[in-house]
Request: fold
Amino acid sequence: MSDLKSYLTATASRIDAAMDGFLPTAKTRPATIHSAMRYSVFAGGKRLRPVLCLAANAACGGDSENALAPACALELMHTYSLVHDDLPAMDDDDLRRGRPTCHKVYGEGMAVLTGDALLTQAFIVLAQTPETKRYSTRDFITELAETGGSEKLIGGQVLDLEGEAKPLTKRDLVRIHEAKTAALLTSSLRLGAMTANATPRKLEALTTFGHHLGLAFQVIDDILDVTQTTEMLGKTAGKDEAVEKSTYPAILGLDKSRKEAARLTKAAMKALQPLGKKATRLEQIATYLLDREY
Amino acid sequence: MSDLKSYLTATASRIDAAMDGFLPTAKTRPATIHSAMRYSVFAGGKRLRPVLCLAANAACGGDSENALAPACALELMHTYSLVHDDLPAMDDDDLRRGRPTCHKVYGEGMAVLTGDALLTQAFIVLAQTPETKRYSTRDFITELAETGGSEKLIGGQVLDLEGEAKPLTKRDLVRIHEAKTAALLTSSLRLGAMTANATPRKLEALTTFGHHLGLAFQVIDDILDVTQTTEMLGKTAGKDEAVEKSTYPAILGLDKSRKEAARLTKAAMKALQPLGKKATRLEQIATYLLDREY
Reply:
């Protein structure tokens, strides 16, 4: 696993360097918005989506340079969704990745604009992805925009917002998690594979992998919110329970939630089989995500 | 001018029909966000950006069918910016196009998400634009995303937000208007021209036209805010003065502002010369915009 840890660290650094080049400097006018964009992006995130994008590119035999633009676009999309979700009118969160949230530092209006700017920047960056024989700019843009759109990422946040303080079934919860988390993780893998000109069969395998991995990831996040402290999480702990939000542990209990996470990860691993040995890195990442201390 | 009026009405209907096809139905789940998106889009706007896009396509001898996707994408981008600008944390407006603003009807959190969804949908739609010999999907996406980004549309709103209750010079004001208004009007013309495979020379002429037209349009908007009633405007009148916002009339006075609008429109007309007779429609539109009762 120390090999994986250094891979993750090296990849995060590589993404940060690429991201630095893809974002306007903090001095670009108007300076406030560019400083706020950088504050939100360079906050020590795990860069999980870029990591998955690059690892999927490698699993399909691609040149990782070609996956840098979509990797950064994915992280920009993810960061925008965090900035907006943290707003007082939404989840009203003061802490994110261990630091005050964007609206706490820059004010609410500026945080709305910062999210808007990060989302727009994602498409500026994504449009720079080199086309392949099978996949065009149109495919890349459609992939990310549909995943980020009203029926997936944003739709999930809507369901989440509407579901607060309302009892949900396990099925409701799966729908929310598919939309809010699994969809973007799956697109991370797909975009990485597309930049490697992957066959439709490999793309399909990675789609199934992403779906299960994403659900597993979200179950674990729900568990961690119950079992960890604010300090360990770097964001406010116990938040879900405080707002009576339906979560896996609330619906299934902690023990069954842990089993569900393990089952989903196993299903994810199985989906990788068509990729053979080249998928070892993705397998390691999935194992690592499941082994987070929950 | 009655010919122009029927052209504008027919074009707006055509855009509305295309937009209907490009948006998820109001029943698509989650229903709230799709109903909010449609509430914001189908609010009787002038469809000025789509009109300019289609007229520029015609001025460059294109097939207008090819300009429908960018025309709708431009209107989606424009509508998202209105929804977010109206938020309490921003301009805090209750009325827009004569109806309660999105956040008044759907709540603040949902209005943030609705704007996000409209912005994302703009790229889903824009990616469907047919490529031409000279212009690719990458060119279309880059054009709209840069115009909508942190240095133009969003940057202008930042300057506007930071400039409230602070005296601005005429130069500051021009910068804000370029970013907030002229940039998107210019991109409307450029995208229309690009779908007609316009020569670089024609594209350049339309860029100059859009720049002057956009500034003229904004000067007139400032004037109307002072001279018209809320009922006539369909949005809260006297708003700029109430928040001590710097505007053309506040800095130059009404009379000089009117002259400035006329001067800018003349410069816009002159820029159209390289397009010859095919630009008649664009000339009519510019004249019409200047002749709004101010």
Observations:
- The beta strands of chain A are 95-96, 99-100.
- Chain A has a mean pLDDT of 92.
- Chain A touches chain B through 49 residues (CB under 8 Å).
